[in-house]
Write a structure and sequence with these properties.
Helices cover about 20% and strands about 25% of the residues. With about 270 residues, the protein is of the alpha/beta class. It has one domain (about 15-265): 4-Layer Sandwich (Metallo-beta-lactamase, Chain A), CATH 3.60.15. The protein has an eight-stranded mixed sheet with strand order 6-5-4-3-2-1-14-15. Strands 7-8-9-10-11-12-13 form a seven-stranded mixed sheet. The two termini are about 30 Å apart.
Length: about 270
């Protein structure tokens, strides 16, 4: 069967952090293209945002985890538990959980705690461990690439390219690193963490100007900043980013949508 060329619709489900916020859920992004509905990170609040977006958890085909910190994985257990309700038969497609080094042990540890309540039938779940250095997975609708970035041992950045040619990159949590520049090169959209203002730079995270410098070096077509700690509310994040990046810029917010195609990338 011939695969139709489709654009990618990206929804920011969570633009926040571990700090509770009514405006910003923890980290999560939904990418929809063709038959694939791909959840990238699954922080607290993700399932509620999916419902607000009109998306059922049973339709999610892949969950990509950038790393294992709770603000990126904290709703994975409730997500798996909910997939078993009422009798486990509402999921018609297998769920692939894809992450970096250690994901089999991470999942096994969760099952040690929660047992059968999160243990989907073998034909309904796949656990896939990526090496991180230019790993590639292909489906009918996308090409998924990943590289290791500077945060945790298992931390990955992801690049998804649709069969229509549009591409986006998701940085995950990271410090400044060449691998992120390389995977983001010429992407139509670069979804990049900007956790703290320039004045509060901490190891393992980016600031607006650092994110902007990566975007500029990678020559991305559009930059979307996300993963904002509350300190960002007291500073002009856009102005700080403009110190290093002059291209199209979006400040992420929950339930924001961006359409990524071969010819254009635009907010919806």
């Amino acid at each position: 069967m011939e695969t139709a060329n489709t654009e990618i619709t990206l929804t920011i489900l969570g633009s926040g952090t571990c700090v509770p916020s009514l405006a910003r859920s923890s980290c999560s992004v939904l990418a929809e293209t063709g038959r694939d509905k791909i959840l990238i990170d699954c922080g607290p609040g993700t399932m509620r945002r999916l419902l607000e977006n009109g998306t059922e958890i049973f339709d999610i085909s892949h969950i990509l985890l950038s790393h294992f910190h709770p603000d990126h994985t904290g709703e994975l257990v409730p997500f798996l538990f909910a997939n078993k309700y009422p009798d486990g038969n509402r999921r018609k497609i297998p769920l692939s959980i894809i992450a970096g080094k250690g994901i089999p042990d991470f999942y096994a540890g969760l099952k040690t705690v929660f047992g059968r309540w999160i243990d989907l039938e073998p034909n309904r779940i796949n656990i896939i461990e990526l090496e991180g250095n230019n790993s590639v997975i292909k489906t009918d609708d996308i090409i998924l690439e990943s590289v290791h970035v500077e945060h945790n041992e298992e931390s990955l950045a992801f690049r998804i390219t649709g069969n229509a040619g549009g591409s986006f990159v998701y940085s995950g949590d990271t410090d400044f690193c060449d691998s992120l520049i390389d995977i983001a090169r010429h992407a139509d959209l670069f979804v990049c963490e900007s956790a703290f203002p320039d004045e509060f730079k901490i190891k393992g995270h980016l600031t607006p100007s650092a994110a902007g410098e990566i975007a500029a070096r990678a020559k991305v077509k559009k930059l979307l900043l996300t993963h904002f700690y509350p300190e960002c509310d007291n500073f002009d994040v856009e102005k700080q980013c403009r110190r290093t990046y002059q291209g199209p810029l979006i400040l992420g917010r929950d339930l924001m949508k961006v359409c990524i195609g071969a010819k254009s990338t635009k907010p919806l």
